[in-house]
Every structure is written in structure tokens, then in C-alpha cells.
Amino acid sequence: MGVGKTTVGGLLADRLGSAFRDTDADIVAAQGREIADIFVDEGEPYFRDLERQAVRAAVEEHSGVLALGGGAILDESTRALLTAQPVVYLSMDVEEAVKRTGLNQARPLLAVNPRKQWRELMDARRHLYAEVARAVVATDGRTPEEVAQAVLDALELKEA
Ligand SMILES: Nc1ncnc2c1ncn2[C@@H]1O[C@H](COP(=O)(O)OP(=O)(O)O)[C@@H](O)[C@H]1O
Ligand SMILES: O=C(O)C1=C[C@@H](OP(=O)(O)O)[C@@H](O)[C@H](O)C1
Ligand SMILES: [Mg+2]
Predict the structure, then answer these.
(1) Ligand 2 in contact with 52 (CB < 6 A)?
(2) Known binder of ligand: residue 56?
(3) Residue 160 domain-assigned?
(4) Which terminal CB of the chain, N or C, has fewer other CB atoms within 10 Å?
(5) How far, in Å, CA of 30 to CA of 61, rounded?
(6) pLDDT tens digits, the chain, 160 residues: what are they?
(7) Is the residue at 118 inside a domain?
(8) φ, ψ of residue 29 in degrees (nearest 5)
(9) Which of 1, 78, 88, 96 to mutate to test the pocket of ligand 2 (most atoms within 8 A of CB)?
């Protein structure tokens, strides 16, 4: 959450000359409301259901770069789906996370006490990211352009 999946995914798609898609954006477009509003109105399990369907549809329909929400890998069937894909796990440390998301109310899970929340989320998720990732790219101290380059290098992808 806040590591740069959406930002770097767009840059990467440009570099590869491919299309970009983001499952959070797909959900917002289909629901006609923001992610934070879906969490408040319907609760997290409802959002996770929408997310599981959005990831499945995107993996089936889309052949370019896909950014997921940071919690998508909590779903076991999503993780199974991702094992066939060249998934990159973008990482950062907690101070970088707070810098990038701390003042941003768009992420409901970090709205209160973001440093503690982020640590707890990562303790619960780190092994799941590692399970699905084909490559891990650290983003601390790197610009989004540098991260995109590191992803190209890690997956040995050629620019368009
Ligand atoms: N490498 C980076 N260095 C500094 N800020 C970044 C970097 N990548 C993304 N950001 C900023 O961090 C915030 C979260 O980025 P975003 O792409 O929405 O992350 P995610 O999709 O992983 O939640 C945005 O304000 C974005 O501009
Ligand atoms: O990590 C999470 O549980 C979430 C991450 C968000 O996406 P980003 O990772 O793109 O911020 C968004 O799906 C929602 O707020 C929940
Ligand atoms: Mg995002």
C-alpha cells in the first residue's frame, strides 16, 4: 500500500508499449464510488469479494501491466491465479511507507496510526507477497522511473 504499484505500473506499461490496468481503478469505475467509501459503506469482506472478481477478470482479459491493490494476495484463489504470472513485489521500509501514505485518507486501512497499522499489515502479508513474487524490487530512495527500470532489469524485459 503506497509502495508505487499504480505509479510504477503506468510507467512500466509506457516503457513496454503495452496497456496498463489497475484493479482498484476497475472497482471504482464499476461501483461508481471510491475505495474508502466501499470500505465504510459495506465493510472490508465485501471489498475483498469485489477485488477477487476484479483480479480474475483483469488476469483473463488483459495482457499488459496490471497493478493490484496491496491486499489482493490475501485471497488464496488470487494467489493461485498469480503463480502463472510474472509478479513483481515492490517493497519499502516503514518510514518510506508513512511518507508516501501517512497523510492520504484514500487508504482506509492506514487512516488511523499509519505506522503501527502498516507494520501489522506487513507482518501478516510479507510471506504471501514472497509466495507469489517472481522478483522483489526495493523502492526506498528510488524515483518511480528508477523503480520501473529495476523491474525491467529484474524480469529481463526489453523496452518497446
Ligand atoms: N519511488 C517513489 N518515490 C517516492 N514517491 C513515490 C514513489 N512511488 C510512488 N510514490 C508516491 O507514493 C504514493 C503512492 O503511490 P501509488 O502508486 O498510489 O502506490 P500503490 O499503488 O502501491 O498504493 C503516490 O503519492 C506516489 O506519487
Ligand atoms: O493493502 C490494502 O489492503 C489495500 C490497498 C489499496 O491499494 P494500493 O495498494 O494500491 O494502495 C486498496 O486496494 C485498498 O485501500 C486496500
Ligand atoms: Mg494502487
Answers:
(1) no
(2) no
(3) no
(4) C
(5) 16
(6) 889 999 999 999 999 999 999 999 999 999 999 999 999 999 999 999 999 999 999 999 999 999 999 999 999 999 999 999 999 999 999 989 888 886 566 788 888 888 888 999 999 999 999 999 999 999 999 999 999 999 999 999 989 8
(7) yes
(8) -65, -45
(9) 1
